[in-house]
Amino acid sequence: MSLSADVTLACWASLEVSLRIWERARGKGKRGRDRGTRLRIAVSLGVAIAVASVASSRLPMPAALRTVGVGVMWLGLALRVWAIATLGGAFRTTVEVDPRQGVTSGGPYRWVRHPSYAGLVLILIGFGLALGSYLSLAACLLLPLPALVRRIDVEEEELTRVLGDPYRSYQARTARLIPGAW
Predict the structure, then answer these.
(1) Domains (ranges, CATH) in the chain?
(2) Taking 70 as the threshold, does the pLDDT of residue 12 lie above it?
(3) CB 91 within 8 A of CB 81
C-alpha cells in the first residue's frame, strides 16, 4: 500500500476516534436504541481492512487504480466530514435521535439520507482500489455491507419513530445511500 493510502487511513481513524471523544465529552452517544450496530460496523470494518490487506497480493488490478483509490478514499472522507458538519450537534455514532432536531435535508442530505455511510462506503472502495487487488476491493465492499444495511434499517426505524411524518416525507423523496438508485 502507498504512503498516501496509509496517511488517508490514519486521517479517517483519527476522525472516528475524535467523534467518539467529542460524543463522550458532550454526554452523547448512548447505545440504548443502537441494537449493537455501532459495534457490528466497527468489527466489520476492521475485518474488511484486515482481509483486504492480506489479500492485496492476489488478483492484481492495473497499477493506475491505486492512485484512483486514494482519491476515492479522500472523496469518501470529505463526504463523511460534510455530512457530520451538516448535522452538527445532532450527529451521533450511535442511533440516538433528539425529537427537537427536525429533519435535515440540506448539504449532502439533499441527495441521500445517509451521506455519512455513503462516505464510509467510498473510503472502503478507495482502500480496496489503493491496495491494487480485485479481491481486496471485494472484501472492502462486501464484508461491511450487511452491518451497514442493518444500521441503516435500525436508524431509519428510530428516525421514523421520533420524527414521524416529516421524516417519512423525506424518505419518499430521497434515496438511502446511492442517489437515484437506493
Answers:
(1) 3-18+37-173 (1.20.120.1630)
(2) yes
(3) no
